[in-house]
């Protein structure tokens, strides 16, 4: 007999660190999802940029079930075939020579920052341990990564925090040039700040970071947890910037819903880690890497990237039409299918209200801070679902701002 559960059970049983919607989702197919009452939703949230192929896609499902009949878990005293195949794929299609697998974006960033500190220690330059990060960034929820993230609301209650991390204004070239010095071991940056409001780094800013890292011997880390695996219309966002990092972190859509993360780097930096320096129990397990390998192969095609760009334009056109009617948006920003809908100043702080109305109208959406509604749908969302979702979003806007 299947045990019955309700939304109220969440309040009674779960540690209160989330405030989920007041419905319970039970099944999904493509970019549609249903709750316990069989109400249907169009999914523009995508599991927070995770469900790159939507729900229950055959590519991921078949890879999972096939591997589940072979081998689930070994631990890293042994290796396995799926992890080696996935590592080959990532190395073949990026700047990287070496890969470390883990379970999440936070863990990937933790590994990246630890490696950078080890590189600094090995440099022979004394106090080369400073990390440069940026305001409004988000890099995860471990104590190290939440400190690197430039949002005090996520870190201020957990002091004392790790030291040696300096936060600068995002896209401030002169501040970055001045702050990155011989004591800097790492600069960590998102090509597009996702949680921070869907704000793209300028080419000049990223180029300045690259130049100063080269001049000072600092490691340049790109956090592509949210922007990677086709999200911006390229395999990774760095490929559209003209700037190549020393370390790249990836997760979210890499497993299309199955937990996996990875840190990618070159031989030059990977050699600073030796056996026992870092590790993880589940990272690189056969189930996760088999799914990620199949997902990577499916997404890493020009037709998928072209489709992301086409869908981006469909969203922008539809949102502009809605804004012509309701006059709520200051700006629509982002790349590919990472979209930020910035509310006008008079509606500041109201993004969550709009998302609530949207869910009532049968649309799942996100926020990126209090003033920005965020869409991160499946990379292959059908055009009819885009149209239907925007129609439902329009009904939500009508309720938020009645004429």
TrEMBL record:
<feature type="binding site">
    <location>
        <position position="280"/>
    </location>
    <ligand>
        <name>N(2)-acetyl-L-ornithine</name>
    </ligand>
</feature>
<dbReference type="InterPro" id="IPR015422">
    <property type="entry name" value="PyrdxlP-dep_Trfase_small"/>
</dbReference>
<keyword id="KW-0663">Pyridoxal phosphate</keyword>
<dbReference type="GO" id="GO:0042802">
    <property type="term" value="F:identical protein binding"/>
</dbReference>
<dbReference type="InterPro" id="IPR015424">
    <property type="entry name" value="PyrdxlP-dep_Trfase"/>
</dbReference>
<comment type="similarity">
    <text>Belongs to the class-III pyridoxal-phosphate-dependent aminotransferase family. ArgD subfamily.</text>
</comment>
<keyword id="KW-0028">Amino-acid biosynthesis</keyword>
<dbReference type="GO" id="GO:0003992">
    <property type="term" value="F:N2-acetyl-L-ornithine:2-oxoglutarate 5-aminotransferase activity"/>
</dbReference>
<feature type="binding site">
    <location>
        <begin position="223"/>
        <end position="226"/>
    </location>
    <ligand>
        <name>pyridoxal 5'-phosphate</name>
    </ligand>
</feature>
<dbReference type="InterPro" id="IPR004636">
    <property type="entry name" value="AcOrn/SuccOrn_fam"/>
</dbReference>
<dbReference type="GO" id="GO:0006526">
    <property type="term" value="P:L-arginine biosynthetic process"/>
</dbReference>
<dbReference type="GO" id="GO:0005737">
    <property type="term" value="C:cytoplasm"/>
</dbReference>
<dbReference type="InterPro" id="IPR017652">
    <property type="entry name" value="Ac/SucOrn_transaminase_bac"/>
</dbReference>
<keyword id="KW-0055">Arginine biosynthesis</keyword>
<feature type="binding site">
    <location>
        <position position="138"/>
    </location>
    <ligand>
        <name>pyridoxal 5'-phosphate</name>
    </ligand>
</feature>
<keyword id="KW-0032">Aminotransferase</keyword>
<keyword id="KW-0808">Transferase</keyword>
<dbReference type="InterPro" id="IPR015421">
    <property type="entry name" value="PyrdxlP-dep_Trfase_major"/>
</dbReference>
<comment type="pathway">
    <text>Amino-acid biosynthesis; L-arginine biosynthesis; N(2)-acetyl-L-ornithine from L-glutamate: step 4/4.</text>
</comment>
<dbReference type="Pfam" id="PF00202">
    <property type="entry name" value="Aminotran_3"/>
</dbReference>
<feature type="binding site">
    <location>
        <begin position="105"/>
        <end position="106"/>
    </location>
    <ligand>
        <name>pyridoxal 5'-phosphate</name>
    </ligand>
</feature>
<keyword id="KW-0963">Cytoplasm</keyword>
<feature type="binding site">
    <location>
        <position position="141"/>
    </location>
    <ligand>
        <name>N(2)-acetyl-L-ornithine</name>
    </ligand>
</feature>
<dbReference type="InterPro" id="IPR050103">
    <property type="entry name" value="Class-III_PLP-dep_AT"/>
</dbReference>
<comment type="subunit">
    <text>Homodimer.</text>
</comment>
<dbReference type="InterPro" id="IPR005814">
    <property type="entry name" value="Aminotrans_3"/>
</dbReference>
<dbReference type="InterPro" id="IPR049704">
    <property type="entry name" value="Aminotrans_3_PPA_site"/>
</dbReference>
<feature type="modified residue" description="N6-(pyridoxal phosphate)lysine">
    <location>
        <position position="252"/>
    </location>
</feature>
<dbReference type="GO" id="GO:0030170">
    <property type="term" value="F:pyridoxal phosphate binding"/>
</dbReference>
<feature type="binding site">
    <location>
        <position position="281"/>
    </location>
    <ligand>
        <name>pyridoxal 5'-phosphate</name>
    </ligand>
</feature>
<protein>
    <recommendedName>
        <fullName>Acetylornithine aminotransferase</fullName>
        <ecNumber>2.6.1.11</ecNumber>
    </recommendedName>
</protein>
């Amino acid at each position: 007999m299947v045990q019955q559960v309700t939304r109220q059970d969440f309040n009674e049983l779960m540690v209160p660190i989330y405030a989920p919607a007041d419905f319970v989702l039970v099944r999904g197919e493509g970019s549609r999802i249903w709750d316990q009452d069989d109400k249907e939703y169009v999914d523009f949230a995508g599991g927070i940029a995770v469900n790159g192929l939507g729900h229950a896609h055959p590519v991921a499902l078949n890879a999972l079930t096939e591997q589940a009949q072979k081998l689930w878990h070994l631990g890293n005293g042994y290796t396995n075939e799926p992890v080696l195949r996935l590592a080959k794929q990532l190395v073949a299609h990026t700047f990287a020579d070496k890969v470390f697998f883990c379970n999440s974006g936070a863990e990937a960033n933790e590994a990246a920052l630890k490696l950078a500190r080890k590189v600094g220690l090995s440099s022979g330059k004394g106090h080369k341990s400073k990390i440069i990060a940026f305001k409004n960034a988000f890099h995860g929820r471990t104590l190290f990564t939440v400190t690197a993230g430039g949002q005090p609301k996520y870190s201020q209650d957990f002091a004392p925090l790790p030291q040696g991390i300096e936060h600068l204004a995002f896209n401030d070239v002169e501040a970055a040039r001045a702050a990155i010095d011989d004591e800097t071991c790492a600069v960590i940056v998102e090509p597009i700040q996702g949680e921070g409001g869907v704000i793209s780094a300028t080419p000049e800013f990223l180029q300045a970071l690259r130049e100063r890292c080269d001049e000072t011997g600092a490691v340049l880390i790109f956090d592509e947890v949210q922007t990677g695996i086709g999200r911006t219309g390229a395999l990774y966002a760095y490929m559209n910037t003209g700037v190549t990092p020393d370390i790249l972190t990836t997760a979210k859509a890499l497993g299309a819903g199955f937990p996996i993360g990875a840190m990618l780097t070159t031989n030059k930096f990977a050699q600073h880690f030796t056996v026992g320096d870092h590790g993880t129990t589940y990272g690189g397990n056969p189930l996760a890497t088999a799914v990620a390998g199949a997902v990577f192969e499916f997404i890493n095609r020009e037709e998928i990237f072209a489709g992301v760009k086409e869908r981006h334009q469909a969203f922008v056109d539809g949102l502009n039409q809605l804004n012509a009617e309701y006059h709520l948006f200051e700006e629509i920003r982002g790349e590919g299918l990472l979209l930020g809908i910035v509310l006008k100043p008079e509606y500041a702080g109201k993004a969550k209200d709009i998302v609530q109305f949207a869910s009532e109208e049968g649309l799942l959406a996100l926020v990126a801070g209090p003033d920005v509604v965020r869409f991160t749908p499946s990379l292959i969302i059908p055009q009819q679902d885009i149209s239907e979702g925007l129609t439902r979003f329009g009904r939500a806007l009508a309720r938020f701002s009645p004429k």
